[in-house]
Each structure stands twice: as structure tokens, then as C-alpha cells.
Amino acid sequence: MAPKHQFSLPLQAKKLQTVRLTLASRPDEASASSNLPKEVKEQQEAIEHIDKVQNEIHRLNEPASEEILKVEQKYNKLCQPFFQKRSKLTVKVRNLGVTTYVKHPQVSALLGEEDEEVLHYLTRVEVTEFEDIKSGYRIDFYFDENPYFKNKLLSKGFHLNKSGDLSSKSTEIKWKLGKDLMKRSSQTQNQASRKRQHEEPESFFTWFSDHSNAAADELGEVIKDDIWPNPLQYCLVPDMDNEEGEGEEDDDNEEEEGLEDIDEEGDEDEER
């Protein structure tokens, strides 16, 4: 797996490098630069010096990345006892897993209604970074007995091989008869395509069998870097629909009270 903190050549530096190469590839223009106005020549020289400085900065990137990884590895080990303690506690909180994923702005977009039903049986999620953080990580999903599949554990791991390419492998989901959400998702999309309707998202569980481009697996990164460090930040987010509903009720009550006040004033005028 590529280091989480990577340092790349800034866009401006790339542009400067392009300028430098362009100048070098045109000797006729470079020789003619002596006839350029003084201000233009000074700008060209400044660009070349900036490019050299930027290259020096770029040379520091690799050792800086290594140092950051060492610090991450150190604190990852220190956090392990607390992660384990948290995992034991999360089992006691009903629907913590499904609530966290349903309320996450990115993950929720991947969930269909049946995916949410399955996630109600999710008891906990654990992320394990390998001893050498650069080599990869694994995400484990633990489930109670459920009507959808036989597995109690679904895992997906990401591994950086010797050639530097990231690959992934996962548990095969043993679906129960007639409960394969991936087949249903495919059938639903085909029907929607024929009818030219809006396509429903693929099942969340297709992620486990998708190994087409591990390096671009955004869901794995979101779970590892965003949800896993602190799932409560999403679990405890207020339900916006409920808040809107409560706000509408308050507005209705205020309108009713206002009408009552008007009726009372009208009755008083009639008595006079």
C-alpha cells in the first residue's frame, strides 16, 4: 500500500519544470534570450532558480514520508489496546454499526434498502494495519446469525506486493438460497436500464468481490482513515429528517396559537 502521507511535486513546480524543459529544448530561442528586455530575463532566471529549489524540496519528500510512517506505526501500536477495548464495548450498543454507515455521507450513498437490512446484523468492524504499515491493512466485518449469508466474518485485505502494486483479496460470501444481493442488484440495474429509469446503486456487498483496482479503492480508505478512528462522530449525528419534522411541528403549533389569539380578540370585540 502506498504511504498515507505522500509528498508530490506541487502543480506550480511541475509548470516550472515544463518551462525549464521547454527552454532547454529550444536552443535557438534560448540564444535569442540575450536580446530580451532586462525585466523578462530576470523573470526567466528567477523561474530557473525556483525550479532548482523546488527540486531540492522534492528530494526531501521520500525521507520525510519514511519518518511519518515510523511515527504512525509507533502510535498505531499504542492505540491497539484501546481499539480492542472499544470493540468489546461496541457489541453492547445495538445497531451501532448500521447507524454509523447509514449516516456517513459517502458510505450511505452506496447502501440500498436490503444492504441496510443486512447491516442490522453487523456487530462490529475492526481494521488491522500490518506490522509494516506500508505493506497494507485488513478490514473485518463481524455479523450475527442472519437470513442472508452463512458467514460470521467477512474480510477484505489490501496488500502491497514486491513490485509495488497494490492488490486486494476478500472472503467469499456464502449467500443463502435466494438472498444473493449482488445478483439482485445486477437484475435490478438491467431492468432499470431497459426502462430508462434511474439505476439503483450496486449492492454494498459487491465491494468484497471487486478487485479490479485496489489502488483506487476509496471505500476501504474511508473505513480505515475516517470511520475506524472514531465511529461515534457519525453514529451520534442527529437525524436531519427528524429535526426538520420537529421544526415543522413547532411552526404548525405557532400558527395554531396565533390563530387562537386572533379568535379570542375577535370574541372580545363582539362582546363590546
TrEMBL record:
It comes from the Eukaryota. It comes from Rangifer tarandus platyrhynchus. Residues 233-272 are annotated as: Disordered. Residues 240-272 have a biased composition (Acidic residues). Belongs to the nucleosome assembly protein (NAP) family. This is Protein SET. Pfam families: NAP.
